[in-house]
User: Which sequence fits this backbone?
């Protein structure tokens, strides 16, 4: 057994693990990061980067088509797929994904990479593929992310369905794509494949799409998918799947007795943690009902003696979003650095409290949905006395300039007792960048009366903030 000692061992080199490692190393600690597949993780190769690389040319084309005086923009499927390949660093005709760029970054940052599958075999002790033993003097950070959840439907696994991994890396556009699920992955990828030429059917068991955003925003996305020719079926349960060959037609039987036939079936019904494969029971680590590692407010895994085990990013299930995971990783890395070097941890930088304020998120469909804080229902469920303010996006002059006939809506959720914003949602073309100002107002607890003095430029879409404040009565 090859044995090595570091101050910190990070398991999982996705964006979150990379950030934890970098932060601990910048505090002067020696750090090893263990990765069993690709440095850069799900996000870089099968999730955020390829999906957004695919969506952007579609958005740009449509934006151009919506402006008078611009002619000729069309989606070129070959070009779209080539752009995606560049983003995942796939060279030539090879199917292999190349993480040498991210490996170079680790080298440059001074972090040692150990390839292989890690398991925790004792206090501060990590084994990789049963051949290398890494002893952590101070901390072990779990940043192992998630796998796609595949429900236990008769015939589903044998039908070799696509998950986000195949859907984001495919070089082939199936004639017919059936999508199981109607969440963020499903909506974004349904729109991609419809724009690339597939006939797409979405099967969602709930009575609406995008269960975690305000209903008006989900409705706008649903209407857009309808316009794109996507057959969206809500309140629809799949009961079994059959596919006679390993490839070829796949048939989904529904509880109504109907069947839907596709050339590929994409399963997009959520995620499952993978930390159950790390052997963490042996050190007392606690998990919640969904299997995610339970952490305290400083990302230390509950149930473990000695405060040496941390879980950040998707592994703790608090917010399945890259930026929120990286935020937790920065805080945990700083805490580990402070404790290891005998400094008092700065509570301002080592408690990622905004995780509990409702995470900002952008759904990159056309129209985009950008939201932060709590929805009106979530705020009410928390016992906050709220007032909800709605305005149409085209009430800002910038929206009309953005596109002819611009459509969209904006909402503020105000905590009336404190006079501050606790939630905001925008839906419309190019609203992604609008949301950060609302996040600043929420995290900074900026009184609305003060926010009124933050004057948006004319004629930008940001003037929607002015319209919302006016509608509120300011
Ligand atoms: C299609 C899709 C699109 C998305 N788009 C966005 C988006 O636009 N914006 C956004 O914020 N979020 C997005 N997400 C969510 C985002 O991908 C995740 O929140 C993010 O990847 C979490 O980062 P992570 O580092 O915690 O985990 P991951 O990125 O999953 O990385 C975990 C790493 O750990 C490794 N690993 C696991 N177990 C072990 C082990 N035992 N030993 C060694 N290595 C191990 C894995 O191989 C992997 O490389 C998207 C998700 C999907 C599915
Ligand atoms: N732009 C982004 O930030 C972005 C993009 C993609 C994914 N993500 C993250 O990845 C996570 C996973 O996304 P996701 O879309 O896989 O999950 P999700 O939880 O967002 O949506 C899953 C959907 O599948 C439905 N569902 C569950 N079981 C079903 C079944 N058997 N049949 C039909 N429908 C079923 C659920 O009702 C739900 O609407 C999200 O939580 C999100 O945070 C983020």
Assistant:
């Amino acid at each position: 057994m090859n044995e090595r000692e570091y101050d910190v061992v990070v398991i999982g080199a996705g964006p979150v693990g990379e950030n934890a490692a970098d932060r601990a190393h910048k505090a002067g600690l020696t750090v090893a990061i263990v990765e069993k597949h690709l440095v850069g993780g799900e996000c870089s190769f099968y999730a955020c980067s390829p999906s957004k690389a695919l969506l952007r040319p579609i958005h740009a084309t449509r934006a151009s088509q919506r402006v008078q005086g611009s002619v000729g923009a069309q989606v070129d499927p070959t070009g779209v797929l080539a752009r995606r390949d560049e983003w995942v660093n796939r060279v030539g005709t090879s199917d292999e994904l190349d993480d040498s760029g991210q490996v170079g970054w680790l080298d440059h940052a001074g972090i040692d990479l150990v390839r292989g599958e890690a398991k925790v075999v004792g206090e501060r002790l990590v084994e990789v593929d049963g051949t290398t033993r890494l002893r952590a003097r101070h901390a072990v950070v779990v940043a192992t992310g998630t796998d796609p959840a595949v429900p236990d439907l008769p015939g589903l696994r044998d039908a070799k369905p696509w998950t986000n991994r195949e859907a984001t890396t495919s070089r082939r556009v199936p004639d017919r794509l059936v999508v199981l699920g109607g969440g963020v992955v499903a909506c974004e990828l349904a729109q991609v494949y419809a724009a690339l030429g597939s006939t797409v059917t979405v099967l969602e068991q709930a009575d609406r799409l995008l269960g975690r955003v305000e209903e008006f925003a989900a409705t706008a996305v649903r209407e857009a998918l309808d316009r794109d020719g996507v057959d969206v079926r809500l309140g629809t349960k799949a009961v079994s799947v059959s596919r006679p060959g390993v490839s070829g037609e796949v048939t989904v039987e529904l509880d109504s007795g109907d069947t839907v036939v596709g050339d590929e079936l994409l399963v997009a019904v959520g995620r499952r943690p993978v930390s159950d494969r790390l052997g963490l029971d042996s050190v007392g680590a606690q998990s919640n009902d969904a299997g995610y590692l339970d952490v305290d407010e400083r990302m230390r895994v509950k149930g473990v003696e000695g405060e040496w085990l941390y879980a950040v990013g998707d592994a703790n299930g608090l917010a399945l979003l890259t930026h929120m995971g990286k935020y937790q990783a920065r805080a945990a890395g700083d805490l580990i650095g402070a404790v290891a070097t005998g400094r008092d941890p700065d509570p301002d930088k080592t408690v990622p409290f905004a995780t509990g304020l409702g995470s900002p998120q952008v759904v990159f469909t056309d129209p985009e949905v950008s939201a932060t804080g709590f929805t009106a229902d979530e705020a009410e469920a928390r016992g906050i006395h709220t007032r909800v303010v709605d305005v149409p996006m085209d009430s800002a002059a910038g929206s009309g300039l953005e596109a002819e006939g611009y459509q969209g809506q904006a909402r503020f959720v105000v905590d009336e007792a404190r006079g501050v914003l606790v939630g905001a949602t925008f839906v419309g073309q190019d609203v992604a960048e609008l949301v950060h100002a609302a996040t600043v107002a929420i995290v900074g607890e900026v009184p609305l009366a003060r926010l009124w003095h933050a004057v948006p430029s004319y004629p930008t879409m940001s003037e929607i903030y002015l319209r919302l404040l006016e509608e509120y009565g300011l």
In short: Residues 56 and 364 are 9 Å apart (CA to CA).
